[in-house]
Amino acid sequence: MKALVIAQLTFREGLRKKLVLGVLLISVIFVVLYAWGFHLFVLDWQERVARRAARGMPTIGTYEIFASAMVLLGLWTVNFLSGVMTIFAAVGTVSSEIDAGTLQAIVPKPIRRWEIVFGKFLGFAGMLGVYIIAMVTAVILTARWIGHYTPPNVIQATLLILLVMVILLSLTLLGSTLLSTVTNGVVVFMLYGLAITGGLVEQIGTALDNDVLRRIGIISSLVIPSDSMWRLASYLVQPRIAVNFLGPNPFGTTTPPSALAVEYSVAYAVIMLLLGMLAFRYRDL
């Protein structure tokens, strides 16, 4: 399949981008700081428990709750970094190559235009998928080795973070077939910010029992469902005792999206990708 050749070339090209190398460097720094922070958290928790035990006072909450919060913070950072990396790695994948004249040399060859877009999608999805799995593994191993804590439903949460990446990648590729590189980057990044803000507004609405704020969050999830999939991942990766103790917060939720929301997100990503293929088919080069 010719799309696989394009995917292979896109994968190699993506690894050579300075932006990707910069994000990888930041990610390594994050993993080191995260492991250090988790180590300090464990020491502080042990000292706190010893002090309260010496005074004959019970411990507030359990270790599981706070270790779960540390894991949640780490996975939220992974989700955010992968979202930024997805947008800016793929933002000019079609538009910049049209401006540079690269695609004019490829299109006359015996390869369909949809195969070019689909191949680029596979290449970026493969590269970003490897990145997400590596980062999630680093967070989970840190929690297990340093914190002696293993969160539940890690595989399901990882698949949902991968779905967030696929949603953003499909949307970015669609924008790249219709808009200039700069315009596409601004539009998709603002939509990504809208999704995060909408999720926060929904959590505030849940905490205040305000239907208007909750509906604003739901509408933003329909416009771009990336944050709702993160909320579901955050819910699954925490034990119930931690969800009930922490309540609605900027990183998680007490009311997870339904299975219908997952189906909508998958359909959203597929439709965005198909629209991107269709738009590139009729795009003047």
Indicate the topology:
Blueprint: H1 2-16, H2 18-54, H3 63-90, H4 95-100, H5 102-106, H6 113-145, H7 154-178, H8 181-208, H9 211-223, H10 226-236, H11 240-246, H12 259-281
Describe this structure in words.
This protein is mainly alpha-helical and 285 residues long. It contains twelve helices and no strands. Helix 3 crosses helix 11 and helix 8 packs across helix 10. It is elongated and about 80 Å long. The two termini are 24 Å apart.
How many DSSP-defined strands?
A: 0
Q: Share of helix among residues? A: over 70%
Secondary structure class reads mainly alpha
Element order: H for helix, E for strand? HHHHHHHHHHHH
Q: What is the 3D form? A: elongated
Let me know the average pLDDT. 88
Alpha-carbon distance between the two ends:
24 Å
- As a whole number of angstroms, the C-alpha radius of gyration is 21 Å
Q: Summed up, what is this model?
A:
The protein has 285 residues and is mainly alpha-helical. 81% of the residues lie in helices and 0% in strands.
Keywords:
about 280 residues, mainly alpha, 12 helices, about 0% strand
